[in-house]
Amino acid sequence: MVVKKEMIAMLLAGGQGSRLGVLTTHMAKPAVPFGGKYRIIDFPLSNCINSGIDTVGVLTQYQPLKLNTHIGIGTPWDLDRNMGGVRVLPPFERNVNSEWYTGTANAILQNIEYMESYNPDYVLILSGDHIYKMDYEVMLDFHKQNEADVTIAAMPVPIEEAKRFGIVITDDNRRITEFEEKPEHPRSNLASMGIYIFTWKALKEALMANEDQSNLDFGKHVIPYLHDKQQRMFAYEYNGYWKDVGTLNSYWEANMELIDIIPEFNLYEEYWRIYTKSITLPPQYIAPGSVVEKSIIGSGTTIYGKVYNSVIGCDVVIGEGTEVHDSIIMNDTKIGKNCKLEKAIIAEDAVIGDMVKMGVGEEAENEDFPNIYNHSLVTIAENTVIPSELSIGKNTVMSGTFTLDEFQDGILPSGKSFIKGGDR
Q1: Which of 8, 65, 377, 420 is 20 to 30 Å apart from 118, CA to CA?
Q2: Strand, helix or coil at 383?
């Protein structure tokens, strides 16, 4: 039975997120925790339900277990529905041409039957790894008013950063006259956000016409094809908060922006809630003599020490005498007594011993992965065990179970990486 939907959403959530380093070793980037209680994918999913979109296909591929578990049947977002709702769409075996998703548009192409089952008028394409709030219904109204075949959400960026994006050039009516994918010398600062509304007919035609392209991609193939066909393409300009948390530093910055006195991105607005899968936990406990200043503290967390300017997840324990500054501590992490943490990102289920220091010493570039571990951050992978009395320098990364005798003078110097295989 064909169920008619005006607009369905296809959410691309299969990315590895390699620039997040060890945070994405065992999970896709959209499943990475954010803001103490959420995961990154909660933001586009919440945007969908707040915008009145009740049919969402989530395309997964890389390390999907945590993402699939988190989404479940869509209950937290009111997407557990008989007609529509949320559907996880991994790659699957076919009679012919069976393959992994090899590009953003290839992933959509492989799910053309899913989209056809709803016979939509419009298809909304989203990325699962951005932090923002957007009313897609307003964008759809803009699309309809212009009788567009394609509408691309775009936002102004500093011209020196424009070469990192797909750039649109428009006329006075916002009609796109040219589209350049990551140009060396950009002629506009209006950058594509990777959010598209297509009429179903235009999208299907472009996908089928380019199905033989390897790594079929929206920016490289689908959009240029429709532009060459002189289809009506418009740019919907967005000027709200939007963050691509694709690097450890941008991820850290986005979390820190949540705890500004007047946050640039507000999680507390009643009219545009961010929904997530909630675990039943007791309230936080802030012990006598402890200090919490300008921080987010998740449910079930127990604090005996001092926390400043940090984002602390759920069911975390911070021991007596411990100080945490400018850090992100994810769910179920246990931190011992008399530690001092500066600019640390500690993933889920880590165990930190007593008298551990993080972010000490002089700055030094990471010797192995300078493009990932930088900006003085200390990054600790999930399930990592850090021994008591270890001092860890800046721009460092650790993953595995460690003992103190593995470190000369009880120090991991700045710029070092220590990544083991296996679990604790």
Answers
A1: 65
A2: coil
